[in-house]
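GNAT superfamily N-acetyltransferase (Rhizobium lentis), 177 aa
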Amino acid sequence: MEMGDGRSFRRPSERRHGLGCKLDTAQPLPHPAEMLPVFEILEPTDEERNKVLALLLDFNALHTAHVIDRPHLGIVLKDPNTSEIIGGLYAVDEYNWLFIKYVIVPSALRGKGFGTKLMNEAERIARERAYVGIFLDTFDFQAKPFYLKLGFEQFGELEGDEQTPRRFFLKKVLSGE
């Protein structure tokens, strides 16, 4: 609806919230104590996953709207002859922290400083972006000692069993350094 001065107005039932969720105010919402949701266990479709994510992001935005969303980060190792990607690092922005999701150095190149160079470059970019810090997870068969040597500290662990590897959560705080 036009207001006459170029602005538009939406009735409450037409307002959109978040990632396309439309709030229907034609039907009054029940008091939380009266609302009994139905639980359904499913293998979610992309649409169902995106709906749950949209609800979470809407809630989070009330508390984190001031946090800048930065682009993902990829640093790759390439074969000099073929330009094929043979290793690298992939990280994402997580509420003013850099979350390193994947790091892989080919077996033949381990112990030659390539992992350290990848991590140092990620840390340089994290500092440039003024992140609070960097965090990652690693399994017991991966590179926990390597990350500890780089100044990371463990802040969590998921126990394993004979079929499940132990998983460690590590962080390196950058602010104030």
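The first helix runs from residue 46 to 64. The beta strands are 16-17, 21-22, 73-78, 85-94, 97-104, 133-139, 153-158, 167-173. ok done for today
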